[in-house]
């Protein structure tokens, strides 16, 4: 189940909600209970299986002497 980010246009509250795929469940603002929060575009982090962040990026940051 994906986690979506929302912003309420009435009170400005930003929040996350776990939503089941294909669900038509109503999302409400936890602060003001508005039924019109807007889903925000989220950034996605991607890593490939088996890669090690510390080793894959540390080699490009080293300098030779």
Question: TL;DR of this structure?
Answer:
The chain is mainly β and about 60 residues long.
Structural class given helices, strands, pairing?
mainly beta
**Integer average pLDDT:** 78
Q: Roughly what percent helix? A: under 10%
> What is the H/E string?
EEEH
For the termini, the CA-CA separation is 49 Å
Q: Write down how many β-strands occur, each being a DSSP E stretch of 2 or more residues.
A: 3
How many helices? The count is 1
Q: State the CATH topology of the domain at 1-42.
A: Rubrerythrin, domain 2
Estimate the strand proportion: 15-25%
Shape: elongated
Rg, please? Answer: 19 Å
Low-confidence stretches: none
Neighbour order of strands in the largest sheet: 2-1-3
The CATH class of the domain at 1-42 turns out to be Mainly Beta
Largest beta-sheet details: 3 strands, antiparallel
CATH-derived architecture of the domain at 1-42: Single Sheet
Characterization of this structure:
By secondary structure, this protein is mainly β. It has a domain at 1-42: Rubrerythrin, domain 2. The chain contains one helix and three strands, in the order βββα. The chain has one helix at 53-58, and strands spanning 3-7, 14-18, 38-39. A hairpin with a 6-residue loop joins strand 1 (3-7) and strand 2. The N and C termini lie far apart (49 Å).
């Amino acid at each position: 189940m994906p986690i979506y980010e929302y912003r309420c246009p009435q009170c400005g509250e930003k929040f996350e909600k776990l939503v089941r795929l294909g669900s038509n469940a109503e999302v409400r603002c936890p602060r003001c209970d508005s039924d019109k929060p807007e889903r925000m575009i989220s950034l996605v982090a991607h890593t490939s299986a088996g890669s090690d962040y510390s080793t894959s990026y540390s080699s490009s940051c080293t300098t030779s002497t």
